[in-house]
Batch of 4 targets.
Target 1
Amino acid sequence: MQGFVRAAVVCCGLLAATHLLSYAQTPDPNSSATSAESPAPVQPPAPIMNTDQGRVGAGVKVSLYGIGGEVAVRVTHHTNVRAGFNAISYSRNFDKDGISYAGQLNFKTFEAHYDYFPWAKSFHISPGVLVYAADPITATASAPAGSHFTLGGVDYYSSAADPITGTGKIKFNQAAPTVTVGWGNLVSRKEGKHFTVPFEVGVAFQGSPKASLSLAGTACDSTGTFCQNAATDPTIQSNIVSEQTKVNNSMSFFKVYPIISIGFGYKF
């Protein structure tokens, strides 16, 4: 009987050991599934959209200074430098105090601006400078033989033998500071935007006008007996200065000249 019990215990022990060994060798379904999976691919970072491409823009425009063109270069994300030119020519004949003038308006200007875009969009504030490349207003003067004219409020008559002729001009400061505000950016900060329609308003501080009048020929009194050379007689020259002062006073509002322009531009 004791041998039978001993044999039963040994058998139970062998069965338990066999069961534990088989359990240890059985693979874990969860761990095998995990090891069989390949690692997830690494996704590349999303590309960053560049909204600041393009460094140069060019355009054409029409303004109170005529027809012109300009080029802008990006300096920073908020600033450009811009330079351009303008030209306009206009002729008109008129009479003043008995003297006939063939006038010529001839604006030829160069300009430079520093454009500041507070929000890096289209609105900008632009200090700058305007330079006149020629005398803006010129005229030729004449008084037909025997005609009446006045200089500085004094009456004269143009000599029949040597009638009065001359030239005149009106100048402003050659370089004038400017300040403008506008909408439109020749070098747009927006990706893919190449075309723009810039609009700008402002003023040029060109200073008070400076008129000059040079006369030649002979000026006589009403009887025609007392005549003087208009180019050399001190009294006539003094009266010419008075005439120049009258012209300057009548044009004093031109010391601040308005700037209004609109154009079409392209960013490269």
Note: Helices lie at 2-25, 29-36, 234-250.
Target 2
Amino acid sequence: MKPRGAAKKPPRRETARNKSFLAVAERLFTTLETFTNFREGELSLDEITRLNGLPKSTSFRLLQSLEKCGFLTQNSETGRYSLGERFFALANSGLPYQRLISIAKPFLHSLMLTFGESVNLGVYEDGMVAHIFAIDSPKPYRVTATIGNRANLHCTGMGKSIAAYLPPETLEGALLNHGLPARTTRTLTSSESLMKDLATVRQTGVSHDNQEDVEGVECFAAPLFDKDGALVAAISISGPSVRMGPQAESMRVAVRETARRISRMLGWNPAETVAGTKT
């Protein structure tokens, strides 16, 4: 006879159901992790099956379920999957830049493939520009960025694209804190020359680091805006001057257009901005 108050063992059928539920949950999270760990944005069913190690039929059912719940979205033209709005809403507090990175990835990947040079994504952080995502050039001699590293605003492509749209008091505070150090002989080290350059950025929508941070390296960058027309981040393409120079004009156009396309994905309305200046 069991003592009064002793816990009863759950029925075998209930135990089996619990194990089955846990197995499904684990597979769902495994599938989501496949997307968060993948650098290029969208994935096909075959790629997901290879990466998560599950049978193709199981992956397909999981993808359908996650899409119906809003955690994934499927590209109607390519059939490929990417993380959905519900995932970002859930993860927003813990992954502040994950939505931005996921949206920008395919566009940056296309930009890298077009020119074969490294591309970057950066945000304003404590008076500097912080790298949050990068795709390196496949070429042996290339420019690489370390995620998490910070750089000055006045001498980098992304830094100047961000500085051009900061509130005056914010920019002034950043320059007071970090100064205008001469990184190379081409660095803009006076407020007058920098402000003139930033005015050009606002007029053209593109900034140019003309060997101002590293000798022999050039960079073209452009700002990203959100649905309110507020500055969000900046993207750039960088490489050795000997390769960047001959493609300078086409790179300017491509970087500006790529930034506009990403901004549209973030909800930005092009009608509110003319030649890079918010009206």
Note: The CA atoms of residues 220 and 251 lie 7 Å apart.
Target 3
Amino acid sequence: MLFRLLAFAAIVALSAGTASAAPKVAASIAPVHSIVARVMAGAGAPTLLVPQDASPHDFALKPSTARAIAEANVVFWIGEALEPFLERPLDNLGQDADAVALMEAPGVLTLPTRDIDLEDDHAAHGQERDHDADQEHDKDHADHDKDHDAHDKDHGRGHEHGHAHDHGAIDPHIWLDPRNARAIAQTAAETLAAADPANAPLYRANAVAFDREMDGLEARLKTKLAGAAATPIVIFHDAYQYFEHRFGLNVVAVATINPETPLSARRLSDIRKRMADAGVKCIFVEPQFSAAALRNLAPGPDVPIATLDPLGAVIPTGPGHYPRLLEDIVEAASRCANG
């Protein structure tokens, strides 16, 4: 009798554990992985698909990556504009997975890939910031975000957007606006709640906590960046438009939209002129790409070359990765401003 009771108790415990087990989740890049990991905290952890030292723009699918996609119940990615390598695997390997393209998520503000002639772009971008200032106390920017969301939903996952490096495409670096991170967390929570109802209250509570954390982080970053926002800088890869839109950076020249394409002599000459005219104080390169040509732009030791990383290649993965990523960007800009 005792044996049967113990056996029954073991079956019940096993069944309960199985019912509350988190789904297998994969996330494409480290910042998305971090946000999803925060939402999953206490239930499980996602698998990171793109190694931190690699670029999602040209990442080559590995057998381990293919296995992770094939085994996943849910895959979070930005979209084909950022991770073109994932489009076919998600169709072929992840047919049973819920593939969530976060560029199309409700509440995510999207911006078009801009012309890197920043003199005209800054004028247009300044108008966007004026509109944003008018809405500063409206946390969700509901009407604005709905318009973008409706536009994106019309395209759907199957629409061919083209790569983000093409003019007219949507800039895919959406995570560098913390308000987009909030929307990503909310989408992750609702997606995971549908896949794992037993843990739904936990996912939703974690998303609410993340939202509060972003409130505090955004306020701290704006305060710290206030003295550095006007400092003229040059960046290698145009990955920071969303960060500029939210916080403000004085980017006077961008070397390239497509980091895989060598810089022409004409482009280098144009950047040198912009640097001289603006009195540039820093040149920022990225660890994922070779930017040797950009390093040759520095006219002397008075214009240092530093690293600005939109993916956080050296930051430990996990829930703390994303806030640290934004803090590191602000810290690099502040060091530049303070010499």
Note: The radius of gyration is 22 Å.
Target 4
Amino acid sequence: MDWKSLLHADPTDWLLEPSNPSVRYFTLRWLLDLPEDEPQVCAAQEAIAQSAPVQKIFKQMHPAGYWGSDPNPHAGCRGRLLLLTWLGYRGDAVRPAIEYYLNGILSPEGAYAVEMKGRAIFLPCHAANLLRLMLWNGLADDPRTARLMDWLIGVQQPDGVWACISKLNAYPCLWATAVTLRAFRELPLGLLTPQVEQVRQRAIDLILRSNLYRYGKDKPSPLWFKFGYPLQWDSDLLEMIELLAPFISAEDPRIQSALKLVLDKQDPAGRWPAEKDPKGGKWMLAYLPFEELGQPSKWVTLHAMHMLKALHSPDKTCQN
């Protein structure tokens, strides 16, 4: 079916407004399928680089490659680098910070390791975010990317989930699993080995068996049912369907209740509201205002349309 028939109206022109160059860029790429070298896409990338949030981030970067007063790479690099990735920035200005981050956080074995209270803490969710950052910034062929991939694959649990192994008693985490699938979405074809595809499929099967959000949880977080961006180490039902959309049928019974929940949040103009601020993201307010809660959100609408387009694509090969 035509996925736009599920919209009450087509808000594409609203998403293309130049006031938000990041949303405009991803709309051109995801919804209009324009190539990276198309003049409109190039112009949007340049507008992102010149936007006030990106300019402010780089103005405050320490020459060594971190931000703030704490030179620890986990504290001093992670947040701003993720924000730049979310905004769609690519450029040479970010490379010193990426190198500082990698040199301070990545173990020789490829693990994302942070020293806390006298012991090494291993963080798969942050490892997945780092993988996405590296892939987004053209480091797919970097040997450190391969080591990080191998480590991340190696800590997947047999049933397909990634566990929060930062605690003394590790526990399985669907958010960490979603963040890993988010990173895998950036993988170029050269890194989509049979092993990676098998690892991804185990995670997809696990999420579907868990009704998208209920793995091991009698009382899941209410954040699953509220939509807002950016997502850091958390997720929600909209993103879960978006991550699974290229691999499942739109008629799959396991997603129907969640899909209805998403569609029911749409307004008459085909837009979705912002319902939550970024988890742990108050520091972002120093760079950009959050979208007003309860009001139409360009970011949520973009991702909802991206999900519907992928879910109803006639070109995908459904793997379930």
Note: The chain is about 45% helix and 5% strand.
